[in-house]
Amino acid sequence: MAPEPDLIRLGPRDAAHRLVLLHGWGADAHDLLDLGPLLVGPDVSVVALQAPLPHPAGVGRQWYDLQQPNWPQLPAARQALLARLEELAAEVPLPATVLLGFSQGAAMALDVTTTAGLPLAGLIACSGYPHPDWQPGAVPPSPPQKILLTHGEQDPVVPYGASAELERQLSQAGHGVQMLSFRGGHTIDQLVLPSLREFVSGAWKT
What we know:
By secondary structure, this protein is α/β, with parallel strands linked by helices. The chain has helices at residues 35-39, 74-88, 104-116, 160-172, 193-203; strands at residues 7-10, 18-22, 45-49, 53-54, 61-62, 97-102, 122-126, 146-152, 176-182.
C-alpha cells in the first residue's frame, strides 16, 4: 500500500473506533502521535493528520498562516479539513470517532466540528482558541457529542482565557462541554492524561 503523505496511522485501518489528532502551528503529524498509545488500545485506529501548508519558518506545518492579517487562508483550511474527516468516515464512521486537537489544531477541530455539525463521539481541544468569526452551531441530534477543553493556567502562547471563552460560547449554544485546567503552560500536561483516557473511553460508551 502506498504511503499517505498527509497523515500517519497507528493500529488497524478498519476498526470499531478511531482517534484523529490535529497538531499545532509549526509542528507536524508526528507531534501528537505518541498520544495514541497513551489514550487508546492497539485495537483502535489512530490517525494523525498533517496540516496542508508549510510553516513560514521553513520547519513544520500550519493549517493557516497566523502571521497574515485576518487569516485569509482559514476558509480554505476549514473546507479541506472537513473533506478529510469525511473521507476518513468512509473507513470508520464519525459517530465512532474522537477528534483531538492542540493549539491551532484545537481551533480547527472546534470550528469545523461545531459549525458543520459533525456527529463525532467526542472532541478534545487542548490549549485552543476561538476563531474571530466562529459561532458554534446546533448540537447534532445523535450521538450526544461530548467536548473536553484543557488549558494551562500559565500558558504564554494562547491565554487561558481563550478556552474560558470557548467554554462560554459552547455552553451557550447547548453543547455538553467540560473544562479541565492545570498549572502549566502551552502543553498537554501528563497530569491530564488520565482524564483524557477516561473521556475518550466514555465517549464510545454512549
